[in-house]
Design goal:
Blueprint (H helix, E strand, L loop, with lengths): L3 H18 L4 H14 L15 H18 L2 H11 L4 H16 L4 H18 L5 H14 L8 H14 L9 H17 L9 E2 L2 E2 L25 H8 L7 E3 L5 E3 L1
Antiparallel strand pairs: 1-2, 3-4
Length: 261
């Protein structure tokens, strides 16, 4: 009969293999693995979901909610509009986008910060005929570096803070990580802006720069006709029809006045 250790090792190996394969949803695979450990009595049934009540998990979930709220609020369009108005050279824009990514990821999830800046970066690159791959990897690194600056910047900081409170009675303060994190982030951003981006291999095909996606018409103005189904509906209802990626930035009435959403 298999011991608990053998069952645990086999389950973890199968779980990692399925996650790498990516055929099925990650949450479904992990829940099936948890159910298997409960079935083989490796984990007591009354403790199977106790980890979801850990304060670190709740804080991470709240940070993800904040990140999603920023994405749904039209913040992407606001940042993109401001960056497109500033005349910047290629290297200047790289530095600005790196600093912005590091600052945003200090107060929200790293993935959320990168998701906010990703379409903005690609749009500005195609507007100025720059090669997007030169900016994408530095953007990812900057969002990771910024996560070290605060307690909520990245899940490991949250978990470490909670464990410190468990064993010592006091957790880290919000900006305790900043004493080291800010210095490392600044040095990292400077290195990427001055030297690191040169190490990124920019692929070219037939002498032309590769374009990841066509975002030349990133901003649209839509006229609502008299017989439109959108009349009388809320903006949230219109967004469900248009798609989750549609952002309404403002409304122009019949007199030409613009009201920001």
């Amino acid at each position: 009969m298999l011991s608990d250790q053998n069952v645990l090792v086999v389950t973890i190996c199968v779980l990692v293999g399925l996650l790498i394969w990516g055929r099925w949803r990650y949450d479904a695979v992990t829940l099936v693995a948890l159910a298997a450990l409960v079935l083989f009595e490796v984990i007591p049934i009354n403790s199977a979901f106790s980890g979801f009540g850990h304060p670190a998990v709740i804080i991470v979930a709240l940070v993800l909610l904040i990140s999603r709220g920023l994405q749904e609020s039209g913040f992407v369009g606001l940042i993109g509009g401001q960056l497109s108005k500033i005349p910047l050279s290629e290297n200047q824009f790289l530095l600005v986008i790196l600093v912005t990514a590091a600052a945003l990821s200090s107060f929200m999830n790293n993935i959320g910060a990168m998701a906010i800046l990703l379409p903005v970066t690609i749009a500005v690159c195609q507007q100025n005929n720059w090669n997007p791959p030169k900016f994408l990897m530095p953007l990812a690194f900057a969002s990771i570096l910024g996560g070290m600056n605060t307690m909520i910047g990245t899940p490991p900081n949250i978990i470490i803070s909670q464990y410190r409170e468990t064993y010592t009675g006091t957790s880290f303060n919000f900006f305790d990580f900043s004493f080291v994190g800010v210095a490392v982030s600044l040095l990292g951003v400077i290195f990427i802006a001055l030297l690191g981006y040169r190490l990124v291999k920019v692929r070219q095909e037939a002498g032309d720069e590769i374009k990841l996606i066509d975002l030349k018409n990133y901003l649209f103005e839509v006229r609502v006709k008299k017989d439109s189904k959108a009349i009388g509906k809320r903006l949230s209802e219109i967004k469900k029809i248009a798609g989750s990626e549609t952002e309404v930035l403002g409304i122009v009435n019949e007199s030409g006045a613009v009201s920001k959403v």
